[in-house]
Specification:
Pathway: Metabolic intermediate biosynthesis; (R)-mevalonate biosynthesis; (R)-mevalonate from acetyl-CoA: step 2/3. The chain has 349 residues and is an alpha/beta fold. It has 13 helices and 14 strands.
């Protein structure tokens, strides 16, 4: 049975902080940091924004773009590593906000930065089996980085939502196939109650990101009998600007293929929203018949790869909700003090 994307939506807070501003506080060399990370600024949530509110906004944009009847949504799954409650689902908040309750199922997903893509896969299974009509899969985060940690220069806020369905007359893109590669590789972690994550530094590179992204990507292409030249575009998880560029090169994809979805330099790493945001930015400009290759990565560790074929239905829906580039436009820049307030880094008692 054909399964694919009925609609998609993104949300990015309007606040940003530049790499130079963070570096000026901690005595870092901004030019070296920008050259090494290829991240020049990152999004910052407003003081009243969290993963739930971001997920709601992304979901509303997806529903708006697709003109989706919320009562057709049979499942809402939100992937995040920064759910606002330890015990209280984010997905029920989203479902209520978009009008999908009560005849539906909901759950929250966690798998570092690929919880959103895992939600897409589960929705694909439920839709494909006929258990539900439409599924809503979301990746949203207000990711954390300890003061003066390398993550502070990249950990950002944002999210993307996808409505998954099976009626070919509605699909703006067909998900041709998916493949996952998973191991127990503890390159990044945060225990319950800890405000900031720990990470293995360079260990997160080759044993974590590159092994899993390349293995997941190669696994899908082998499964489908495709090569990089069969795709117009490619998207890889974006913890920084260098990693996806190197992964693309290792796999045989060109810089031109990944450029439309490479939003991390002006956005930062939106974690569970990262790969899904890159796919959204690519769908914003893709034409009917274009194929998109995407591989999400989550520390811990695993990758989810997708092959996506854009249909002619995208033309009628594309401009019915804000594009990723529109959401990135006209930012409000913050000082480090304001940023610390927005992020809750100033604690009392």
């Amino acid at each position: 049975m054909t399964v694919g994307i009925v609609s998609y939506g993104a949300y990015i807070p309007k606040y940003r902080i530049k790499t130079e501003e963070i570096a000026s506080v901690w005595g870092g060399d901004a030019e070296i940091l920008k050259a090494g990370l290829k991240v020049f600024e990152k999004s910052v949530p407003d003081v009243d924004e969290d993963a739930a509110t971001i997920a709601v906004e992304a979901a509303r944009n997806a529903m708006k773009r697709g003109g989706v009847d919320p009562q057709r949504i049979g499942a809402v799954y939100t992937g995040s590593e920064s759910h606002p409650y330890a015990v209280k689902p984010t997905s029920t908040i989203v479902a209520e906000a978009v009008g999908a309750t009560p005849d539906m199922t909901a759950a929250d997903f966690e798998f570092a930065c690929k919880a959103g893509s895992a939600a897409v896969q589960v929705c694909m299974g439920l839709v494909g089996s006929g258990m539900i009509d439409l599924g809503l899969a979301i990746g949203a985060d207000v990711s954390q980085g300890a003061p003066n940690d390398a993550l502070e220069y990249t950990a950002a806020a944002g999210g993307a939502a996808y409505v998954i369905g099976r009626q070919e007359s509605e699909l703006i893109a067909i998900i041709e196939d998916t493949y996952s590669f998973t191991t127990d590789t503890p390159d990044f972690w945060r225990r319950e109650g800890q405000p900031y994550p720990g990470h293995g530094g360079r260990f997160t590179g080759d044993p974590g990101y590159f092994k899993h992204v390349t293995s997941g990507a190669k696994g899908l292409m082998k499964k489908m009998g495709t090569t990089p030249s069969d795709y117009k575009y490619a998207v890889f998880h974006q913890p920084n600007g260098k990693f996806p560029e190197r992964a693309a090169q290792m796999l045989g994809f060109t810089k031109e293929q990944i450029q439309p979805g490479l939003v991390v330099p002006k956005l930062g790493n939106t974690y569970s929203g990262s790969c899904l945001m890159g796919i959204a930015a690519t769908l914003d400009i893709a034409q009917p018949g274009d194929r998109i290759f995407a591989t999400a990565y989550g520390s811990g560790a695993g990758s989810d790869a997708f092959s996506i074929l854009v249909t002619d239905k995208i033309e009628a829906k594309r401009n019915l909700a804000p594009s990723v580039q529109q959401l990135l436009a006209d930012p409000i820049y913050l000082s480090y003090g304001k940023y610390a307030h927005h992020k809750g880094k100033i604690r009392f008692g």
